[in-house]
Design goal:
The protein has 10 helices and 17 strands. It is α/β, with parallel strands linked by helices. The strands form 4 sheets. It has a 6-stranded mixed sheet, with helices on both faces. It starts with 6 loop residues before the first strand and ends with a strand. It comes from Salmonella virchow. It holds the Pfam family DUF4062.
C-alpha cells in the first residue's frame, strides 16, 4: 500500500552520538516515516526496559548506530544498546547496523575509557558485523546518506505491517465477508447462465467432466542441478602429470567446457522436466448430453492461466526428454586412465597379473528409456478431436446424442511456476442460444 508509514526504532549510545541520532531522526522523517528512540520516552511508572521493549514490539524496522562507547550497563552486565539489539533480533525485526569507522578521530567523551567495556564493545561490533544489513560510516552526513538509501531498499524487499489511515483499511471481517460474497456471486452467475442456456426443454444439456473441483498443484522448489564448471589451469595438474599434459590439451578442454549461460539453460530445462515428471496431472475429458435432444457441432474451449501449460506435440520433447549437458572429460582423468592402462599392460607383459590387476572394460551403450509419448497424430475419427495450444484446449464433437457421452484423449497439464488463477470453460453448440460457461480456481504452490 503506497500510503503505508513505518515506525523505525533508532538505537545508539546517547551522549557521544547525540548529533548522529538527531540527523538520522531527521532522515527518517524526510522519508515520511516515524522515528522512535530513547528521547521519545516520557516518565512512566513502568520500568524503563519494559517501555523500550513495548516500543520495539510496535516498530517495523530497527536502526542501530554504533560508535566508540559501549554505553550504560544494566544489572545483567550488558549495555542497554546491546540489549535493544538482541531483543529486536529475537523478534525477527529487520535490523540495519551502521558502525563508525574504528580509525576515525574522536573526542575524549566519544571514546570508551573502561577496558572491560571496551572489550564488550568490540564483541558487540563483531556481532553487529555479522548482520546481513551492515555498513560503516565516518561523518554524520555520510551516515545520513547511507540510511536514506538502505531504509527504502529494505522496506521494498521486506514490507512490514506499518500504519495506514483508518478510513483506508477495511476490517478483516469485512474483507472476509466480501470475498465470500464474491465467490457465491460467481457461482450463482454460472448457474444462471447454465439454466438460461438450457431454458427450452428441447435443448441439449451439455455437461463436461474433467476438472470437477478447484485444483491445487505444486511445483518443485528452485534447485541447481549442475554447478558452473571452472576452467582447468596448469597449476591444478598433479605433479606426476605436469610433463604429460600439454598446454594445448588444457586450452582445448577449457574451450569445450559449457559456458555459464549454457549451464543456466540446462538448469532451466531440468526444472521444467522435473515439474513434468513430478507434478504434471493427466485428465480425461468426458462430455455428456443429459438433454432430450442431440447436440451438433459441439465445441468446448478451455483456457488456462499462464503458469500452466498443456503438453502437446510441439513441446513434448522439451518436457519429456531429460536434457543433456555435454561436459568434456578433463585431461587429468584421461591421462590417469591412460597411465593405468599402461601399467596393466606392463603387468600383463611381465606375467604377474591376477584377476584384479587388469580390468577389461565392457563396452557401454546408453540405451534411452522408452517413453510413453503423447503425440498429436492425425485424427482417426473426424467427428471427435482435440486441438492443443500452450494455454488452451479446444474439444470438438460433431454430434452428441441425448443421454450419451463422448470420451476424449487424455490431456497432460504441467505447472510452470507458483500462482493463483482461474481455468475458464465454455461449451457451445448449434442448439444453444447462449454458451455454457463456468470456471475452476487453480493454485500452484512450491513443494
Amino acid at each position: 500500500m503506497e500510503n503505508k508509514k513505518y515506525q523505525v526504532f533508532v538505537s545508539s549510545t546517547y551522549v557521544d552520538l547525540i548529533d548522529a541520532r538527531k540527523k538520522i531522526i531527521e532522515t527518517v522523517l524526510s522519508l515520511y516515516h516515524f522515528p522512535v528512540g530513547m528521547e521519545m520516552f516520557s516518565a512512566d511508572d513502568s520500568e524503563q526496559w519494559d517501555i523500550i521493549k513495548e516500543t520495539i514490539d510496535a516498530s517495523d524496522y530497527y536502526v542501530i548506530i554504533i560508535g566508540h562507547k559501549y554505553g550504560s550497563v544494566s544489572k545483567d552486565g550488558i549495555s542497554y544498546t546491546e540489549m535493544e539489539y538482541n531483543y529486536a533480533k529475537s523478534l525477527n525485526i529487520p535490523v540495519l547496523a551502521f558502525i563508525r569507522g574504528r580509525d576515525v578521530l574522536t573526542k575524549p567523551h566519544e571514546r570508551e575509557s573502561d577496558p572491560q567495556k571496551e572489550k564488550q564493545l568490540n564483541a558487540f561490533i563483531e556481532k553487529a558485523k555479522a548482520n546481513k544489513m551492515c555498513d560503516f560510516w565516518e561523518t554524520i552526513d555520510e551516515l545520513a546518506t547511507k540510511v536514506a538509501i538502505a531504509l527504502p531498499k529494505v522496506m521494498r524487499r521486506n514490507p512490514r505491517t506499518g500504519w495506514v489511515r483508518g478510513d483506508q483499511v477495511a476490517s478483516k471481517e469485512i474483507t472476509a465477508e466480501l470475498a465470500e460474497l464474491s465467490n457465491e456471486n460467481r457461482k450463482l452467475r454460472e448457474k444462471v447462465r447454465e439454466y438460461e442456456s438450457q431454458l427450452h426443454s428441447d435443448a441439449p444439456q451439455l455437461e463436461l467432466s474433467m476438472i470437477d473441483n478447484d485444483l491445487t498443484l505444486t511445483v518443485d522448489a528452485e534447485s541447481t542441478y549442475q554447478e558452473y564448471l571452472p576452467q582447468l589451469c596448469k597449476e591444478a595438474v598433479p605433479l606426476e602429470l605436469k610433463d604429460t599434459i600439454t598446454t594445448d590439451e588444457i586450452e582445448s578442454y577449457n574451450s569445450s567446457l559449457p559456458t555459464d549461460k549454457e549451464v543456466d539453460l540446462y538448469n532451466k530445462k531440468m526444472r521444467l522436466h522435473c515439474n513434468y515428471k513430478n507434478n504434471a496431472i493427466t485428465v480425461s475429458p468426458v462430455l455428456r448430453n443429459n438433454g432430450r435432444t442431440f447436440a451438433s457441432n459441439v465445441y468446448v474451449e478451455i483456457d488456462f492461466p499462464e503458469f500452466l501449460i498443456v503438453l502437446k506435440g510441439s513441446n513434448e520433447d522439451f518436457f519429456i526428454k531429460e536434457p543433456k549437458l555435454k561436459i568434456p572429460e578433463s585431461p587429468i582423468s584421461k591421462h590417469k586412465k591412460r597411465l593405468s592402462a599402461l601399467m596393466s599392460l606392463e603387468n600383463f607383459r611381465m606375467g604377474i597379473f591376477d584377476e584384479t590387476s587388469i580390468a577389461i572394460a565392457k563396452p557401454h551403450f546408453e540405451v534411452p528409456a522408452i517413453i510413453n509419448r503423447i503425440a498429436d497424430l492425425g485424427t482417426v475419427n473426424q467427428d471427435v478431436w482435440v486441438m492443443k495450444e500452450d494455454h488452451k484446449i479446444t474439444l470438438r464433437a460433431k454430434k452428441v446424442l441425448q443421454s450419451l457421452t463422448v470420451e476424449y484423449e487424455e490431456i497432460v497439464i504441467i505447472p510452470l511456476t507458483i500462482g493463483t488463477g482461474v481455468i475458464n470453460f465454455k461449451i457451445i453448440c448449434e442448439q444453444l442460444k447462449e454458451p455454457v460457461v463456468f470456471s475452476r480456481q487453480v493454485t500452484v504452490t512450491a513443494s
